[in-house]
Known about the structure:
The complex is a heterodimer. In chain A, 0% of the residues lie in helices and 50% in strands. Chain A is built from no helices and 11 strands. In chain A, a hairpin with a 6-residue loop joins strand 4 and strand 5. By secondary structure, chain B is mostly beta strands. Chain B is globular and about 50 Å long. In chain B, the strands form 2 sheets. In chain B, strands 2, 4, 5, 6, 9, 10 and 11 form a 7-stranded mixed beta sheet that branches. The model of chain B has no long low-confidence stretch (mean pLDDT 97). Chain B has no helices and 11 strands. Chains A and B meet through strand 4, strand 5 and strand 10 of A and strand 5, strand 9 and strand 10 of B.
Amino acid sequence: DIQMTQSPSSVSASVGDRVTITCRASQGISGWLAWYQQKPGKAPKLLIYTASSLQSGVPSRFSGSGSGTDFTLTISSLQPEDFATYYCQQANSFPFTFGPGTKVDIK
Amino acid sequence: QVQLVESGGGLVKPGGSLRLSCAASGFTFSDYYMNWIRQAPGKGLEWVSHISSSGTTIYYADSVKGRFTISRDNAENSLYLQMNSLRAEDTAVYYCARDRDYIWGNYRYTEGFDYWGQGTLVTVSS
Lengths: 107, 126
């Protein structure tokens, strides 16, 4: 199985900050990586697919990059509604696996 | 608009069974691959199972293989998860989620899960 790791596990940031979250796969997954945002008590929301494609309706301050084993999610200017937990997920092969999550909270 | 509504969760004793349902609307259900994903209380996301649009191709996580069965009824626009031999570690919110896919020639790839239901809580406890 492909293991996914994320760093940091949590980050404290202020509105307007640039935030970068890293995701690493235990083996190459090409660009088959998705990013999700989850708020407490809510279902996850797809932000980015195939590593860098922005899902329809997602603000352009979110961007993704990477290929192979190393990926990043960047929020260019953090907004109050962006405080949440973010998960990466590999879609290269079954079983699909998620990273452990990165919690973004208010500094 | 796309809607996925799960039902069937509840409290069940270890070793018991439960059948979850996911009612789909707002899209042509029979065109899409579907998934079950779960989240234990306070924990991260765990993919559970995947089913092709026709129901002929199915995958499971090792943690549920042999105990859970995914199925679908395209005439009823519904997805199911039959859960048997339940264990305490199966306690979680269970989400159904639609595949966002990419088709290239004869090949189909999952790009992510673009729509999720609100989830249904399954609690396994004596």
